[in-house]
Amino acid sequence: MSVTICPWCQSEIIQEEGEEPEKICPVCDNELDGYRTLQFSLGDEEESEEEEAEDERLVSIDDDEDLGWLDGEDLDSNEQLVRFDEALTELYDEQALMPECPVCREYMIEAGERLVGAAEFAPRLPGNSDAPLLEAPFKLTMFVCPSCFATHSFLGDEARQRFIRGLSRHDKENEV
């Protein structure tokens, strides 16, 4: 019997003899052999020019991957990203509703409201009812993900109340 310690959650994973070692921690679901480390050198050791060139190449690759959404815009020593993060924090503090993006799970920013008119919305008439569950005009509160820029919308407060009344009315009609 052998014991493996998960580098992520520090859980002990007991493995019986003859069984293959676990590749994924059953506690935190992280890879047991995929633990990443960073190495820092302390002191006055000087890097060779070759190592510096390699580090610069790696940094530029990482920056391109992380900042692909900027499409080649110049960043002044990450000043633009810092302002972006500060603006996000300020906007999150102002929001009452903090939905998660359905695509990437980042918190979304409330971008505004959209008025949906009768020409843009064809209501569904449920069952044998003559009255729709929701009638136009109504407002949608629009949210935008600051990470992947997906959009998502929710019914505004007034439209929610009308929708609830429409469902209640429909349910009452079905009882009769």
Summarize the helices and strands and which ones pair or pack.
Blueprint lengths: L1 E4 L6 E4 L33 H18 L12 H16 L14 E8 L21 E7 L6 E5 L1 H19 L1
Written overview of the protein:
- This protein is 30% helix and 16% strand.
- With 176 residues, the chain is an alpha+beta fold.
- Among the domains are: 38 residues, no CATH class; 80 residues, no CATH class.
- The strands form two sheets. It has a three-stranded antiparallel sheet with strand order 3-4-5. Strands 1-2 form a two-stranded antiparallel ribbon.
- The chain is flat and about 70 Å long.
The succession of helices and strands, N to C, reads: EEHHEEEH
Helix coverage percent:
25-40%
Estimated share of beta-strand residues: 15-25%
How are the strands of the largest sheet arranged? 3-4-5
What is the overall pLDDT average?
A: 76
**Coarse structural class:** alpha+beta
Oligomer type: single chain
Number of strands: 5
Extract low-pLDDT stretches. 59-69
Q: What's the Cα radius of gyration? A: 27 Å
Distance between the termini: 68 Å
Q: Which outline best applies?
A: flat
